[in-house]
Design goal:
Blueprint (H helix, E strand, L loop, with lengths): L24 H5 L16 E7 L5 E7 L1 H4 L4 E5 L1 H4 L26 E2 L5 E7 L2 H10 L1 E6 L12 E4 L20 H7 L2 E9 L11 E7 L2 E5 L5 H12 L6 E4 L15 H13 L3 E4 L2 H4 L9 E9 L5 E12 L10 H4 L8 E9 L13 H19 L3 H7 L17 H12 L11 E3 L2 E13 L1 E2 L2 E7 L5 E4 L9 H13 L6 E4 L16 H26 L14 E3 L2 E3 L5 E3 H8 L4 E7 L8 H6 L6 E2 L9 E13 L5 E11 L6 H20 L5 E2 L4 E2 L17 E6 L23 H13 L17 H4 L1
Parallel strand pairs: 1-12, 10-11, 14-15, 20-21, 28-31
Antiparallel strand pairs: 1-5, 2-4, 2-6, 3-5, 7-15, 8-13, 9-10, 9-12, 13-14, 16-17, 17-27, 18-26, 19-20, 19-25, 22-23, 23-24, 27-28, 29-30
Helix pairs in contact: 10-18, 13-14, 14-15, 17-18
The structure holds dioxothiomolybdenum(VI) ion.
């Protein structure tokens, strides 16, 4: 075995803004990190396996369990007859609950979508449970399902404008002026329709739950992005006191929104464990993960842009259509962002949800901006072509520091600096705008660009910071490590504020018994959590400073406590006097010092903290504030190569520049943004869940057929971070960037494909079969 070497740590420079290796990197690469699904060693653990529906609409008429129960080791079979109302229906986020859907699989015989859970078999071994689940004989009364847009039987509902005070999310239908008249009168017009496909998150860690009861208390190991919501929601479903439920999720093996809501299967596994009096673990298959969890639904768009010959927008109309399930009206409604990106006196928007026999969709990385900005940023490229104007210049002409609907100012907006930095790094000035003009042998080369924007969201947050007499620091908050480096940014904040080194700091997250943190979604975690940890550290600093300045015999006696700072393991006065941190702690406290802090974002409702403790995590920010707009911005540039004979499409370069406020850990931030850029390429060129329209069922529900880029598909990627100081968003000036890197990338790819080939692909993904007829080869 290789000699173990200490993890690389940048101790000397640990502070906010220092590029730092993850403090948990070593644990992760050595396999020591415990994910929710790793808790498999409970004594007497039983295993569960799901049986999911073959039909997409109808009823379960009978379940013959005899063959399943005959499998040696099978202990129990849960169906709608055994579960029924023993699990109370969960409320969705829109109903101030915690679930992604109101579909309650074993509550009745009703089947709402293909792949819905219809039974769960529990056995001594995983293999016996699986065998039992396969041997269940389920009969159905099937009805004809509706799969997607244009399917017979779908039900369309226009989204009502939510304009009442305090209503979420945002307005849904921003409008100003007379957009229809201005469009009709505009000298240059673009009127085009776009579409994005269904996508599934497919985190590498499979969906799973392990549930264990002891003395009426329930402990659940499940990877989650929202553990207080999870705890409270599960308590509600099972009729328990939330204090009797504990959720443990130290590391999350990928989530991307799929673990933001409480899953349908969790309460079923908990119920099975209670019935058996044994801990039960369920792990779903990859294919089951396509139907028992949320996903990104397909969308359609019609965009109308009217502009003057100078390129200035006179009218912008964005209509969106989204698919959802029969019972739930989930929507992403991204016109909140797309109508506010550019200066335009006349704006209109409209969103329609289309109910089909499908699982309820949900959050998936940058939910509203991904589809809605694909449409807008493709249309902007079409407008640039119609105007014979450079696409970067078109963005400059329409840049604004105030959103057009209410004239609210952006707290900061570096869209054009981002375009300048990225276009320079990309070499955009060498672009010949004529499609097909940049050939390299048999390859048609295309360059495209697009805007990225993502709201600066924040949630109410709490944290506890403890300082031991030896100067060691413990940071505790029920936050989530979804792969983004949460622990490291929290440690850096503590180092920055308490003047200690990284190896002195221990961060505890991922346990619902810790002080509550908001859902890890909407790119809010770094802003929400670092600000509250800084607040707790300031409390400690103030107490140390007060004790030091009041001490009759100490080196800092008489100093102004407000001017004392913690750095390099010392408490320091501006005049150069110092006291060692351990001495200062001993002076201030007989033992460890503990500080608990709460922080509310700008625009939070008065009951936000109480709701956080109840597990209701509502975020403030973006376009929801009444007096300002908070967004991070970026510019996406892509080079594609399309083979003139085979039409093979390759992304060969991507350059992105991003301004997202203060960057706590530039190393992790770059990785996050780069991952987003890769996902953007994936979304544009590879990903699509495809359906058999007769059965409302996905036929590529595994990783061999759901295409994703491998390293060979991933080109040179450059990620540029622009400095940005914006203290209006929050005290530390953090905007968040987890979801910024992939927004707009899909449009940049399609725009580059147009530049290479003269083919405008308005329906993602870009695939060979859409490029059979290339106009640039006809001339
Ligand atoms: Mo994200 S889709 O907000 O986990």
């Amino acid at each position: 075995m290789a000699q173990s070497t200490p993890a690389p740590r940048d101790d000397a420079t640990a502070a906010i803004g220092a590029a730092t290796s993850r403090i948990d990197g070593r644990e992760k690469v050595t396999g020591a990190a415990q994910y929710g699904s790793d808790f498999i060693s409970a004594p007497n653990l039983a295993h569960a396996y799901l049986h999911t529906s073959r039909i997409a609409r109808g009823r379960v008429t009978a379940i013959d369990e005899a063959a399943a129960r005959a499998v040696p080791g099978v202990l129990d079979v849960l169906t709608w007859r055994t579960v029924g109302d023993r699990i109370k229906p969960g409320k969705t986020f829109e109903q101030k609950g915690y679930m992604g859907t109101t579909i309650a699989p074993l509550a009745s015989d009703r089947v709402h979508h293909a792949g819905q859970i219809v039974a769960m078999v529990v056995a001594d071994t995983f293999e016996a449970a699986r065998e039992g689940a396969h041997r269940l004989a389920v009969t159905y009364a099937a009805e004809t399902p509706s799969t997607t847009f244009d399917s017979p039987g779908v039900e369309e509902k226009k989204v009502e404008a939510a304009s009442k005070e305090g209503e979420e999310p945002g307005e849904d239908k921003p409008r100003v002026g007379d957009a229809a008249a201005a469009f009709a009168a505009a000298p240059v017009q673009v009127d085009a329709r776009y579409a994005t496909p269904t996508q599934h998150h497919n985190p590498i860690e499979m969906l799973h739950t392990t549930a264990s009861w002891a003395g009426g208390k329930l402990t659940v190991w499940e990877s989650s992005q929202n553990m207080h919501g999870f705890r409270n929601g599960l308590a509600e479903q099972l009729g328990l006191d939330p204090a009797d439920v504990r959720v443990i999720s130290p590391y999350v093996g990928g989530a991307f929104g799929s673990r933001g809501s409480l899953s349908q299967h969790t309460a079923i596994v908990a119920l099975a464990a209670r019935r058996l009096g044994r801990p039960v673990r369920m792990e779903a298959t990859r294919s089951q993960g396509f139907t028992i969890q949320t996903y990104r639904a397909e969308t359609r768009h019609r965009i109308r842009l009217g502009a003057g010959r100078d390129g200035k927008l006179q009218s912008l109309i964005h209509e969106g259509w989204e698919v959802t399930s029969r019972p739930d009206a989930y929507k992403v409604a991204g016109t909140d962002a797309s109508t506010r990106l550019y200066a335009c006196p006349n704006v209109d928007s409209d969103v329609t949800v289309v109910h089909a026999d499908r699982p309820t969709p949900g959050f998936m990385r940058s939910p509203p901006e991904i589809p809605y900005l694909f449409a807008l940023e493709s249309a902007m490229d079409e407008l640039a072509v119609a105007l014979n104007m450079d696409p970067v210049e078109l963005r400059r002409v329409n840049d604004t520091m105030k959103e057009p609907i209410h004239g609210l100012p952006y707290t900061s907006r570096q869209l054009m600096p981002a375009f300048e930095a990225a276009s320079k790094a990309f070499g955009w000035s060498g672009r010949d705008p004529k499609p097909g003009s940049m050939r390299d042998g048999d390859w048609l080369v295309g360059w495209g660009c697009a805007t990225s924007m993502y709201p600066t969201n924040m949630g109410p947050a709490t944290a506890r910071v403890t300082l031991t007499p030896q100067g060691k620091v413990r940071v505790q908050t029920a936050a989530h490590e979804i792969g983004t480096g949460t622990k490291t940014v929290l440690a850096l904040t503590a180092c920055d504020r308490l003047g200690v080194t990284l190896d002195q700091v221990q961060v505890e997250i991922g346990d619902s018994d810790l002080p509550p943190a908001p859902v890890s979604g909407g790119s809010n975690s770094t802003a929400s959590l670092c600000n509250v940890v800084a607040k707790a550290c300031e409390d400690l600093r103030a107490r140390l400073a007060a004790a030091a300045s009041q001490a009759g015999d100490g080196p800092l006696r008489g100093a102004d406590p407000a001017a004392l700072t913690l750095a390099g393991g010392q408490l320091r006065a501006p005049d150069g006097r110092t006291e060692a941190l351990a001495d200062a702690i001993a002076r201030a406290s007989p033992g460890a010092m503990e500080a608990y802090a709460e922080n509310l974002p700008h625009g939070a409702k008065p009951d936000a903290l109480r709701n956080l403790y109840k597990g209701q995590s509502s975020l403030a920010g973006g376009a929801k504030l009444k007096d300002r707009m908070q967004f991070a911005f970026g510019a996406q540039f892509v080079e594609v190569r399309v083979h003139a004979r085979t039409r093979e499409v390759r992304a060969s370069r991507a350059v992105g520049a991003y301004a997202a406020g203060r960057i706590v850990n530039p190393k992790a931030a770059k990785s996050q943004l780069m991952g987003g850029q890769i996902w953007g390429l994936s979304a544009a060129l590879h990903e699509s869940t495809d359906f058999d329209l007769r059965h409302a069922r996905a036929y590529n529900d595994d990783l061999s057929e759901y295409l994703m880029p491998v390293s060979a598909d991933t080109p040179d990627i450059e990620t540029i971070l622009l400095p940005e100081d914006d203290r209006q968003v929050n005290d530390l000036g953090i905007k968040g960037l987890g979801e910024l890197g992939n927004v707009g990338l899909n449009a940049a790819v399609a725009n580059a494909v147009y530049h290479a080939t003269g083919v405008r692909i308005r329906e993602l993904p870009v695939r060979v079969e859409k490029l059979l007829d290339l106009p640039v080869l006809r001339t």
